[in-house]
């Protein structure tokens, strides 16, 4: 097995959001080699005293279930001072890569709200599996706020096996091959590295 559990847009503290218990249940009932939170674990308007500890509990539970845990901030997260266990890799805002579950992951965290930066991603440099993870509004048609805008054609030109996105709250798909689409609020995906396929949970 070489798989990655990815969730995004939990928006703790937002009315109608899935909530901490939903996240804890997904973490407890899903088997994977690694886990990634792809941004907006907490809502910008959330009461920090109540919901920052909930965000910490979610990521702490992830560390107990998975040996490799990552956090890539979204535009709502930058409004809070978040701290996680030392075993959580918190990723920087510059474009970079790291190894995860047998894949090369390319990403950059959100720096500001809004974040209008247009990032340049490297083209695929080897036959190893490549996956892009990005908290992005993409073309902007499904979002009210600008967040690391990117055109699907630009993402496809990198030659990666998939681009899995956070920020948009519905699990919309921009392209099927290679896959480019959002996880969505109240959803998680299990990405299978060898087959470059994903399952919505």
From TrEMBL:
A Pfam family it matches: Metallophos
Molecular function terms, GO-annotated: hydrolase activity
Domain Calcineurin-like phosphoesterase: 3-171
InterPro entries for the chain: Calcineurin-like_PHP (IPR004843), DNA_Repair-Maintenance_Comp (IPR050535), Metallo-depent_PP-like (IPR029052)
Superkingdom to which the source organism belongs: Bacteria
Coiled coil: none
Gene3D superfamilies documented for this protein: 3.60.21.10
Protein name: Metallophosphoesterase
Organism: Corynebacterium aurimucosum
Lineage, top ranks: Bacteria, Bacillati, Actinomycetota, Actinomycetes, Mycobacteriales
């Amino acid at each position: 097995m070489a798989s990655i559990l990815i969730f995004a847009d939990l928006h703790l503290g937002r009315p109608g959001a899935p909530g901490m218990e939903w996240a804890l249940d997904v973490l407890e009932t899903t088997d994977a080699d690694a886990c990634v939170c792809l941004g907006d674990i907490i809502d910008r308007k959330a009461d920090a005293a109540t919901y920052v500890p909930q965000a910490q509990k979610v990521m702490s539970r992830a560390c107990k279930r998975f040996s490799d845990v990552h956090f890539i901030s979204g535009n709502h997260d930058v409004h809070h001072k978040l701290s996680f266990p030392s075993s959580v890799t918190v990723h920087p805002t510059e474009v970079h890569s790291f190894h995860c579950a047998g894949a090369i992951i390319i990403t950059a965290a959100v720096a500001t709200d809004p974040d209008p930066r247009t990032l340049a991603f490297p083209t695929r440099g080897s036959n190893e599996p490549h996956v892009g993870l990005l908290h992005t509004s993409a073309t902007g048609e499904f979002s009210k706020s600008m967040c690391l805008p990117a055109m699907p054609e630009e993402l496809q030109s990198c030659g990666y096996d998939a681009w899995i996105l956070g920020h948009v709250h519905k699990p919309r798909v921009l392209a099927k091959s290679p896959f480019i689409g959002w996880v969505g609020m109240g959803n998680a995906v299990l990405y299978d590295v060898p087959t470059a396929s994903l399952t919505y949970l």
